[in-house]
Amino acid sequence: MRMVDLIAKKRNGMKLSEAEIKFVIENYMAETIPDYQLSALMMAVYFQGMDQEETAFLTKYMVESGDTIDLSAINGHKVDKHSTGGVGDKTTFIVGPLVAAAGIPVAKMSGRGLGHTGGTIDKLESIPGFKVELTNEQFIENVNKYKLAVVGQTGNLAPADKQLYALRDVTATVNSIPLIASSIMSKKIASGADSIVLDVKTGSGAFMKTLEDSRKLAEEMVTIGKQLKRNTVAIISDMNQPLGYEIGNANEVKEAVKVLQGENVEDLRVLALELAAHMTILAGIYPDYDKAVHELSRLIDNGEALQAFKNFVEAQNGDISVIENLDKLPSAAYHISVKAEAEGYVHEMDAESVGIAAMHLGAGRARKDDKINHGVGITLHKKIADIVKEGDTLATLHTDTNSNDDIIKLIQNAYTIKEQVIQKNTMIYDVIK
């Protein structure tokens, strides 16, 4: 078997066999296939695509390129949740405790933020003392005892994915649905869960900007999951504006806790209940969607989900006094209002620009080695369909510097305000099973 023949085969739009895909991954990892040949194959895939079977085989051999997590010592049906990334996405802090309170184990490995999307691990570290590194024994013990643990990504999970992604990043082949789908699913499958719920974002703040592309990606990942014997459901959710009203690390923890306390942050609560409902259905706890949403809402209203969050934080050395008094979370030195320069109704928000603004404040990273400032961020006061008068506060910047003119302008330009009344955005566009 020769790599040049496989490149030509895919270039001509033909299907690669399982043996051929295995050959590519194994030999690339053994460094007997050079970068320039794999780059050529990735470009051929970019233009010619892969069918669902090819994508499943690619995912399988990326999983097998490294370690897989054995969760068999955890009692019960393990369900994982993954988001494709967005702005203000703090659903893990609501969904995890909710599902745990329903009795389902959630053993989750999460990443750090890069660019305009925030990282779950960075947000958890805004809680004083919180440990994101646990031994495997501690991780399993916490999940068995409290039904929830979240740690940073460890071990050698899907190393082929890391190497392929680095190559795609410098060869303009990132935006290929088969390659995106196999990248995401290889890490999720290697993480050991029995079932997977995917939150596929669509819109201005998402990786996939159009509903059509988001649906293709969701369908591709659900198919991969099923072919690799993982029950998988994908929710397509809106990211044409940030989720909730808070962006930033401590800010987002604070807002998630408020939802667990019963505050109705509408879009955030709706999405969290949607994701949690499908997780509980996959685990066989509730028979149908309506029953799941009803019971999960009850777990918020009676405080059991909040208690599950406190148990989780305390078990990972976090200071739960900040959960009981949210003012003790890290905060910024200055709080600067961003004023509206027009009046009417908010028609559009560039969610990506809002995320970039938060990153420039220090809430995110432009480069992997940038340090995070847990106290800075943005509070939104106006979202799509809200009425705005000239001079109204659109957002508040929480910042440790009093020179923020460029960021203020970035936020102002992220809003499109028009005279006509407009409806609120749809939160859930589709469910792919």
UniProtKB/TrEMBL annotation:
Q: EC number(s) on record? A: 2.4.2.2
Name the GO cellular-component terms.
Answer: cytosol
Which Gene3D superfamilies does UniProt cross-reference here? Nucleoside phosphorylase/phosphoribosyltransferase catalytic domain, Pyrimidine nucleoside phosphorylase-like, C-terminal domain, Transferase, Pyrimidine Nucleoside Phosphorylase, Chain C
- What Gene Ontology terms describe what this protein does at the molecular function level? 1,4-alpha-oligoglucan phosphorylase activity; thymidine phosphorylase activity
Q: Which domain of life is it from?
A: Bacteria
Task: Give the protein's cofactors.
Answer: K(+)
Keyword vocabulary terms for this entry: Glycosyltransferase, Transferase
Instruction: Note the Pfam families from the entry.
Output: Glycos_trans_3N, Glycos_transf_3, PYNP_C
Question: Which regions span the lipid bilayer?
Answer: none
Q: Which reaction does it catalyse?
A: 2'-deoxyuridine + phosphate = 2-deoxy-alpha-D-ribose 1-phosphate + uracil; uridine + phosphate = alpha-D-ribose 1-phosphate + uracil; thymidine + phosphate = 2-deoxy-alpha-D-ribose 1-phosphate + thymine
- Annotated Pyrimidine nucleoside phosphorylase C-terminal domain ranges read 345-418
- Give the PROSITE patterns listed for this entry: THYMID_PHOSPHORYLASE
Query: In this entry, which stretches build a coiled coil?
Result: none
GO biological process terms on file: pyrimidine nucleobase metabolic process; pyrimidine nucleoside metabolic process
Per the record, the similarity remark reads: Belongs to the thymidine/pyrimidine-nucleoside phosphorylase family.
This protein's assembly is summarised as:
Homodimer.
Query: What does it do?
Result: Catalyzes phosphorolysis of the pyrimidine nucleosides uridine, thymidine and 2'-deoxyuridine with the formation of the corresponding pyrimidine base and ribose-1-phosphate.
Q: What is this protein called?
A: Pyrimidine-nucleoside phosphorylase
Source species of the chain: Gracilibacillus ureilyticus
